[in-house]
Structure formats: C-alpha cells, structure tokens
Amino acid sequence: MKTKLSLLVIVAWALSITALPSVASASCSFADIHFSSDFDSGRLDGCEQTASNSYTLTLKPENTPINPSPWYAFQVTNQSETAQTITITLLSDGAPARYQPRISSDKQNWQPVPYEKDQQQMQFQVTVTDTVYVAGGEIIDTSFYPSWLAELAPTALITLGESSQGRPIHALEHRVDGSADWLVIIGRQHPPEVTGALALVHFSQLLFSDDTAMRVFRQRYNILLVPMVNPDGVAAGNWRHNANGVDLNRDWKRRSQAETQAVHAKLTAITAAGGRIRLALDFHSTWRDVFYTMTADYVTVSGEPLQQPQLVNDWLTALANELAMPIENKPSHNPNSGVFKQYIADQFGVHGVTYEVGDQTDREHIKRSAEAALTTLIKQLFPDY
Ligand SMILES: [Zn+2]
User: How far is ligand 1, taken at its centre, from the CA of residue 77, in Å?
Assistant: First the structure.
C-alpha cells in the first residue's frame, strides 16, 4: 500500500498562495496509523506500509547539493483501541541516517529511542497508544523563540526584519548607556542543529539571569542576540538551507539573502553609531564538540590584525581548565568562504567563533559547557576596564 503525497502537496501549495508563510507538510493515513508532519518544524516526505506493523518513511532534502543532515519530525497517531508497536524505517534520499530518534507525547519532554542504522537507513520501534511525536532531536520550532526572548528581556525584544517568506527575525538588543562594546550571538542558521540551539539557549539563559557576574556584565556590555537567523528553514524542517535553497552560512560575503542582509544591516548600524563589536558567536551542531575559530594572527582583508588577537585562545584555554577536559580549538581562515566568523573578522576586525556542539552530546553536558563558556568568556571581555 503506497500513499501518494502529490495531492496534499498541491493543496498545501494552493493554500500557501493566500496564507504565506507556508509550512511544508505531508501526511499519510493507513488503517489505524496516521503520520503527519503538518506542524511547525515538521518534516516527512513520504510513507509506505511494508508489513502489518512496519512503515518505511522517506526524507528528501529541500534542494541539492546539500550536507547530509536529514531532519525528520512527525506525529504518529494510533486510531485503534489498543496500543500498537510499529517498526519505522527511515530512508533519507541516499544520505546516511544521522540524527538519533527521540520521542515525546507533548513536544516538551523527549526520550531517546534505541535504533539500528547503516549508510542507507535507520530502523526503530515505537509504541503508540494515542499520539506521539518522533523527531531527530528536540523540536525547537519558530514559535519558541519570540516567547523565550520576551521572558529573557522583555524590553529588549526587537525584530531585525523579515525572512524571504516574511517571517520576523527576532532578536534581543540589550543597550547600556555609556558603553560602546557589543557581544553578538547568533544561531539556527542551519535548522536541524538542535544541540547548538540548546547550547545557545543555556548560554543566553545565564547571560540574562540575575547572577551577579552577569548583571555586572550587562551593565558594561551591549548585547545583540539573534537566536534564529533562518526561521523559514526551521518552520519547514529543512536540512540546511533557507526558503530559497541557500546555505546562509556561506552567504555572508555576498549577502544575497534577506536573512543575512537583515543581520548585516543591524551590525553596520551599530558600528556606524559608534559601537564596537568585540566578539561574535555563532551556534551550530556537527559530529563532535569543536570551536571553529579565526587564527590569532589573521590579517583582515583590509590589512589589519584582529583586535585582542589572543582573546579566543585565552578564552578556550580557560574553558578547558574550568571544565577539566580538553577543548578542540580549530583555527582557520578563508576570506571567500562566506562563513559568519570570517565575515565578522573581515567586516569588524574582531574574532568570530563557530560554537559547534556534537549531535549526540549529552544534554546535561551541553548546559554545563555553555554556562562555563559564558563565565570564562566574560572574564576575557574585560581587559580594557
Ligand atoms: Zn551548522
């Protein structure tokens, strides 16, 4: 039994003409079991029943070429009277399975699901009594960010503009009278990078807390926090790109997209008004924990060394001491890469850092590391005082 999605796709497309922005959706119904990805950050591209309790689900990228990071997030509903244990096989369009499945009944509390995988497919079982969500990580959808930011610092909430599909790019702009110094934090350029998103949340949660050191820091430093640079990609459950199929973290040199343009406009407005960006952090996920940094002796495209050239090396050394474990610091530079950290260095003459969290990094460790990263960082950001 095979369910065609074409009709649903056409209906979704027709609706999207009058109801932008649209969210990618797919749903498939079988006798008792119903799959749906028709929600913010949902992603599922096809399904087939292969045996009485077995289903093969397919995932397709938004466009190619693309990094192999097949995101999935779908709801499974059991319409029968009794609980059913089903076997799900995920096929991700030739890309190797990557993200460990997690399950939740409320989209808030998630449990890892045991699985088997090879280069082509991933297989696992879930027991469904009523409705469960299955995803390649905790679902942090577009609706999370504005309410979370409003809780952190209600008076600092702004939008930087709109994505290409018209979604707001939410931000916090924390301003201090008498200080020109700015810390810049961005995240979610790549939608499925949930562990990086979690690290950004923990980092920012402490930064805007009542902790004494943080209050002192916030009296001396301006902060721009843009936690979701790619809201269209997050809404659609994209593997990597924005709604135009562009990798935003390769677009910072050209700035061809609404999202990079909106952030760039804000940063240049800050510096045009006399502000000094001192450091910018960009949160991501990859196969392991690693900090991609600029080389300390990098000379920018305008021929200047970076300000505080040892800032990041000193910070990561302090972080390794604080956590009592090695920290991987991978310096590099490539003026044509279009990567955010490189743009920060060339445009503003300061360090940019790509803060990468491993896909499977323990969630408690993500929190502990992010908080230690912040407490060690603010000590490095005060040398001029
Ligand atoms: Zn990334």
Answer: 32
d(CA 338, ligand 1 centre) in Å: 13
Sheet holding 46-51, edge to edge: 46-51, 54-58, 84-91, 121-128, 116-117
CA 43 – ligand 1 centroid, Å:
18
Q: What average pLDDT is seen over the chain? A: 93
CA of 240 to the centre of ligand 1 (A): 8
| 82 CB-near residues (< 8 Å, 6+ apart) | none
Cα(232) to ligand 1 centroid in Å equals: 15
pLDDT confidence bin for 317, thresholds 50/70/90? very high
Cα of 248 to ligand 1 centre, how many Å? 9
Supply the CATH classification number for the domain 6-135: 2.60.40.3120
Specify whether the CB–CB gap between 92 and 143 falls below 8 A.
no
Strand pairing category for 290-293 and 157-162: unpaired
Give the separation between CA 261 and CA 255, rounded to whole angstroms.
6
Mean pLDDT of 356-385: 92
Q: Which two tokens stand for residue 341?
A: 């950290």
Ligand 1 centre to CA of 194 (Å) is 10
* Structure-token match 């407490």, residue found: 375
Coil, strand or helix at 236: helix
| CA of residue 353 to ligand 1 center, whole Å | 12
- 90 alpha carbon to ligand 1 midpoint, in Å? 22
Query: From the CA of 230, how far away is ligand 1's center (Å)?
Result: 11
Cα-to-centroid distance, 324 and ligand 1 (Å): 26
Q: Where are the domains of the chain?
A: 6-135, 144-380
Whether residue 16 has pLDDT greater than 80: no
Distance CA 137, CA 100 (A): 7
Q: Which CATH number fits domain 144-380: 3.20.20.10, 3.90.226.10, 3.40.50.720, 3.40.630.10?
A: 3.40.630.10
